[in-house]
Specification:
Order of helices and strands: EEHHHHEHHHHHHHEHHHEHEEH
Distance between the termini: 46 Å
Shape: globular
Strand content: 5-15%
Radius of gyration: 22 Å
Strand order of the largest sheet: 3-6-7
Largest sheet: 3 strands, mixed
Structural class: mainly alpha
Helix content: 55-70%
């Protein structure tokens, strides 16, 4: 980092290489259109194949197998939606908005509302004094120990992987996304209403053409699988042992990007399905880089090669973490509190 001294105060600024990343924040209409084609066409084809398997009464496991693949493709569609929220998929704001609404309907997520909360996420990630919007709820060890028993129980349930990535994903995409936040503006509220009306139209059209039961047998497993996978990606982006957290007075957005956002290195096929979002440290350095430029940016800027790498194997360790320990500046497990209690008892002897 470069330090500037103004009136006796030291102010952190962006590193010298930051301006180099600007050239990657240019959308390519050809690549954008190709991504739409190579993703939406397979998704629609999978949907058609699933309709065939249900209506010809083939074993339902065949439909569910196709749903796993379709759910993975829907995760990729959500990344396009995410890029549109940052205005990076197309150069045109209008084109981003149109595609954002279309992909938002496919992913059961209101465009303007999610864009607002996600921008809040970028502005507050890793800030212990500004938690609660667009992030995974994270308590400090002190907050947890001071909380009433019922609140601790609720928090443990919330952080339980079987609940968070199961019923939690279902509630988020099927229920919570149907309502706007209390502090939402008029534009965000309208986007929720428009998305809900569009989904009602889609359900009505599906009921008229293929039947409501067939629609549920196809759409429900797809959205649940995609929701669980998408939440897992979102979780691992900032929930790992040495992730950067700080109080607002010392909070540094560049440290959040490089030390508080993960480089989730995935096999190439999974990188395709996840739209390169595993390169999340780069995304937080410059959010308006389209997904198809993230890998090239990583390869060509040496500063990105020094960050901690998380793999599929090491990512599973994050499931044990649930609290931010301000003293050690790490995320710790609930079990570590028991060890801390035993250590305190020994010190008293």
């Amino acid at each position: 980092m470069i330090a500037e001294v103004n009136d006796g105060e030291t102010k952190l600024t962006k590193p010298a290489w930051y301006q180099t990343t600007a050239k990657y924040a240019q959308s390519n209409p050809g690549r954008s259109l190709w991504q739409i084609f190579d993703t939406l066409v397979p998704y629609l084809a999978l949907w058609a194949a699933m309709v065939y398997t249900v209506q010809t009464e083939l074993p339902y496991w065949i439909t569910l197998t196709l749903a796993v693949v379709a759910g993975g493709v829907l995760v990729r569609i959500f990344i396009f939606f995410h890029d549109c929220c940052h205005g990076s998929f197309f150069a045109s704001r209008r084109a981003n908005t149109i595609l954002g609404y279309v992909t938002g309907i496919l992913t059961f997520t209101p465009f303007e509302h999610w864009r607002h909360t996600h921008n809040r996420h970028h502005a507050t990630t890793g800030d212990l004094d500004r938690r609660g919007v667009g992030d995974v709820r994270t308590m400090t060890t002190e907050e947890y120990l001071a909380a009433p028993l019922l609140r601790r129980f609720a928090y443990r349930c919330y952080r339980n992987p079987f609940i968070f990535f199961g019923p939690g994903a279902a509630l988020l995409f099927l229920c919570f996304n149907r309502f706007s936040r209390k502090d939402a503006g008029q534009m965000e509220r309208r986007s929720v209403l428009r998305t809900n009306m569009a989904l009602l139209f889609v359900v009505g059209l599906a009921t008229w053409t293929i039947g409501f039961r067939t629609y549920l047998q196809i759409q429900l497993p797809i959205i649940l699988i995609a929701g669980s996978l998408g939440l897992w990606l979102f979780y691992i982006q900032h929930q790992f042992e040495n992730a950067y957290w700080a109080r607002h007075g010392s909070w540094d957005p560049m440290k959040v990007a490089l030390e508080g956002s993960s480089y989730f290195k995935l096999p190439k096929i999974l990188q395709w399905f996840s739209g390169n979002i595993g390169l999340h440290h780069i995304h937080h350095v410059r959010p308006n880089i389209p997904n198809y430029n993230l890998q090239r940016c990583h390869d060509e800027i040496p500063a990105f090669h020094t960050v901690n790498v998380i793999t599929l194997g090491t990512s599973l360790r994050s499931l044990q973490l649930g609290l931010c320990d301000e003293k050690s500046q790490t995320l710790v497990s609930f079990r570590s509190l028991k060890a801390r209690g035993r250590e305190a008892d020994l010190n008293m002897i």
